[in-house]
Amino acid sequence: MGGFSYYQATTIFNTISTYDNSTVTNGTTAQERAWDEAFGYFGVPVDFPTNYSGLKNWGSYCNSVSVSMTTSQTLASTDPASFNVIIMNAFLKGRAAITNKDNTVRDAQRDIVVRTWEKVGAARFITYVKQAKTNFADDGKRNHALSEGVGFIKAFRYNSAKTITEAQITTLLGYFGTNMYTVTTTNMDNAIAEMARIFGLDATKL
């Protein structure tokens, strides 16, 4: 998901201004189609978050952390602070801005999408490391959750406009080392705290 869908989507968003927005082919411009393609990589229906059925990939993760942070699916779909609401509103406003040839609004909404998407990965990392702590005595469950969490750290590198730095990524990966059988709960706590600090997240809500 980092090397494919996240990379593809963020690359499109980070270069959206390079797509032609003048020539209309089959009802849309190249820039409109590019934005739509990036939206497709997220994995939600066009009426998300009113409709959250059939969520896939990043959309599923976004919804799961939104529910955790707002305590219910209803709030996750309506709370203005919910990742679900923030990212979908930005997807829609950015797409409308392209149609209206408003590059300023397009770029502002693009930035919201990319930053929120990055926060989804950070939040999901925290939930996975918490799962690993809960199942610390079970090697299989612990290492499965840790592997998922480490995957989200590595995924950040596929976004050329990431806000997390390479040094911070290295620090986070360092808490897990090269052998997950030797990871300590102290280092898990440190990793959670560091990720929460970087992205301004409240780890107690995840």
Description:
The longest helix is centred in the middle third of the chain and has 32 residues, at 103-134. This protein has 206 residues and is mainly α. 66% of the residues lie in helices and 0% in strands. It has nine helices and no strands. The chain has helices at residues 2-14, 30-42, 57-70, 73-78, 83-99, 103-134, 139-155, 166-174, 185-199. Helix 6 (103-134) packs antiparallel against helix 7.
Topology diagram in text:
Blueprint: H1 2-14, H2 30-42, H3 57-70, H4 73-78, H5 83-99, H6 103-134, H7 139-155, H8 166-174, H9 185-199
Helix pairs in contact: 1-2, 1-7, 2-5, 3-6, 5-6, 6-7, 6-9, 8-9
What fraction strand? under 5%
Q: Assign a percent range to the helix content.
A: 55-70%
| Radius of gyration of CA atoms, rounded to a whole number | 18 Å
Mean pLDDT: 97
Provide the succession of SSEs: HHHHHHHHH
Structural class by sheet pairing and helices: mainly alpha
Give a quick precis of the structure.
The chain has nine helices and no strands. The chain is mainly α.
